[in-house]
Structure formats: C-alpha cells, structure tokens
Write a structure and sequence with these properties.
alpha/beta, Rossmann fold, 7-stranded parallel sheet, 9 helices, 41% helix
Length: 262
C-alpha cells in the first residue's frame, strides 16, 4: 500500500518498466527508487547471470518489485515481454532505457582497429535496442506515455570512449526518429544526458579515472560523481505529466559542463 506522500507524488498511478538496474549505484536503480517514492508501480528487467543480482538489489527498493527476464538483443525475450508486463502491470505509462555495452576492443583508444562485428555489437546493444525495447512495449503503452533513455554527451570525442561514443550519437538519432513516429500517439521520447557517474559500467571504461577527474574539476556547478539522484530526478520529471509537449529532447544533467569551455 502506498503511503500518503507516494499517493500524491509526481508519478502517482504511473506504471513503469525500468531496465538497467545492476547495482545500487546504477542510474536505473535510483530512477526506480524515486519512481516508487513518487507513487509509481514498476517492474524491472535483467537477464542471464545478472538477473539474480538485480533481484537482490531490488530488495533494497522501497517496495517489492518483480524482475522480468529481458535480453534486448534476443527476439524471443522481446516477443515475450508484452505478456509478462501485462501480467504484472496491465499496461504501461512509461519506459526507461538504461542499457549500454561495448566489447573491450571497441573502447580504450584502439578506435581504428575495432572490427565491424565489435562496433556493431556496441551499436545494437546501446542504440538499436532503444527502438527494440519501445517496439516491444508499444502494445502496452498508453497514449501520452513517456519513454526516457539514459545518455552521455556525444557532442565531442572522449578519449577511450570510442565506439560507445559513436553509439551514444546513434542513440540520440534513434530518439529523434522515435519521437517523430510516435508523436501521433502523443508518446514522448527523450534522453537524459548524465555527467560522469561512478557506476559499474563507467568504471569499466579505459581511462575512467581521467574522465572522473574532468567531472570533478570542470562543471560550473560542482558535480558529485557518486550521486545519481539528480539524474534520476530528471528522468522522473520526464516520466511525469509535467512535460506534455517535450519530445526528441536531450536534457543535460551534468553540472553544465556540456555548455561551457573551461
């Protein structure tokens, strides 16, 4: 049962599917936490060996939630998702895409030597999967629903980020096309571009310490690399009804670093 604050929260009555919860440092974990605190009913997804880990981490959320199996590159998982979510929530008012992966060979400065196969893997998991996830959820998405993806600044080349950076640029383009083709149903599709955060995924990037140092020193508003709450709050705001005419947008939550030269 929701407490009084949740019942009157920003996301009261919303039904949300949230991907990408791996640890309690994950951006998606904090989106899930804030969504529940603001009154939403949620389900999470995970797959493979990570599924059990996600189930354990989900126990830390304010309320129990189901973790559904989903590999966004697996056609069977995508086909089964509609029925699984319908059984849990009945329908959807929002989806959060917080999924990215690149093979080691596609990161770390060997940009010119990355094979097409490894670059394609990064693009499929990190960008094309946004379309795949939305299409799988489309039968359940209510008119006026909101889809939010987690992004990282692709307006510049970050040393070592390589094909993941290319994938983030592709993700932004996918977002614009989803916004175009889903606008008739008033389904909004937006991204939140987060500053560097010390997540499991970020720490696996070669040169992560250098990126972390940039974010510690350069944003005009001091940035905490261990605090995903501001990013998660932005996701929650976009999932709410407070941005009814905003779609195809990239909302930066990075202390303003994207906007300045320092």
């Amino acid at each position: 049962m929701l407490d009084a604050s949740a019942a009157s929260g920003l996301l009261s009555g919303k039904r949300l599917l949230i991907t990408g919860v791996i640890t309690d440092a994950s951006i998606a974990y904090h989106v899930a936490r804030i969504a529940q605190e603001q009154g939403a009913d949620i389900v999470l997804t995970s797959f493979g060996r990570a599924l059990r880990i996600t189930e354990t981490v989900a126990e830390q959320l304010p309320r129990p939630t189901r973790v559904l199996p989903l590999d966004v590159t697996n056609a069977s998982d995508l086909a089964n998702l509609t029925g699984l979510v319908a059984d849990e929530l009945g329908g959807l008012d929002g989806v959060v895409h917080s999924i990215a992966y690149a093979p080691r060979s596609a990161l770390g400065g060997a940009f010119l030597d990355t094979s097409w196969q490894d670059a394609a893997t990064a693009l499929e998991v990190s960008a094309y999967s946004f379309k795949s996830l939305v299409k799988a959820c489309l039968p359940l998405l209510s008119d006026g629903a909101s889809v939010v993806g987690v992004d990282f600044d692709s307006s510049r080349a970050w040393p070592g980020y390589d094909w993941m950076g290319v994938s983030k640029a592709a993700l932004e383009s996918v977002t614009r096309y989803l916004a175009l083709y889903l606008g008739g149903r008033r389904i909004r599709v937006n991204l939140v571009s987060a500053g560097y955060l010390r997540t499991l995924a970020a720490r696996s990037i070669p040169g992560a310490r250098d990126m972390e140092e940039i974010w510690r020193r350069r944003p005009p508003i001091p940035w905490n690399v261990e605090d995903a709450t501001p990013t998660a709050q932005a996701c929650a705001a976009l999932l709410s009804d407070w941005f009814p005419m905003t779609t195809g947008e990239v909302l930066h939550v990075d202390g303003g670093l994207h906007a300045v030269v320092t």
